[in-house]
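Lab meeting, item 3. Inverse folding demo.
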C-alpha cells in the first residue's frame, strides 16, 4: 500500500503561482511513477503531469505545458507540482497518484494507469 497526502492548494489570483506537494509513505517511493490529475466541478478527472520513478522524464497536458512543472525528491518521498501563470480554468481539485513502475522509463498519462490516489487539494484561481 502507498499512502498519498496532498497539500499546498488555496485561493490565488490569475497570473499567480502555487506549489502543490504530495507526501508518500508505505513503500519504496523510488519504485513508483507519479502523476498529478485534476477535476473541476461537473467535469471528468483529467491528466495534468507525470514523472518517471527516477524523475528523468516528465509529461504534461497541453493545457499546462510551459506553466506547470512536476518534480520529485526520492530522499524525502515527495512529489511537487509548481504552477505558474495560473488561469481561472485551472480551478479544480488536484490529485496526486502513484503506480509501481515496471520500467525506469515508464510514465503514465491516464488515470486508469494509477492505483494509488490522494484525497485531493482544492486550487481556486480568481479572475
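The presenter then showed the designed sequence:
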Amino acid at each position: 500500500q502507498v499512502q498519498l497526502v496532498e497539500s499546498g492548494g488555496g485561493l490565488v489570483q490569475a497570473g499567480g503561482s502555487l506549489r502543490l506537494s504530495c507526501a508518500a509513505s508505505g513503500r519504496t517511493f523510488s519504485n513508483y511513477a507519479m502523476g498529478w490529475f485534476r477535476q473541476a466541478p461537473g467535469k471528468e478527472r483529467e491528466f495534468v503531469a507525470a514523472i518517471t520513478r527516477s524523475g528523468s522524464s516528465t509529461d504534461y497536458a497541453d493545457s499546462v505545458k510551459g506553466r506547470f512543472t512536476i518534480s520529485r525528491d526520492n530522499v524525502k518521498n515527495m512529489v511537487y507540482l509548481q504552477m505558474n501563470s495560473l488561469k481561472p480554468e485551472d480551478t479544480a481539485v488536484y490529485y496526486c497518484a502513484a503506480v509501481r513502475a515496471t520500467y525506469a522509463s515508464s510514465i503514465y498519462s491516464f488515470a486508469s494507469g494509477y492505483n494509488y490516489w490522494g484525497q485531493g487539494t482544492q486550487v481556486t484561481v480568481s479572475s
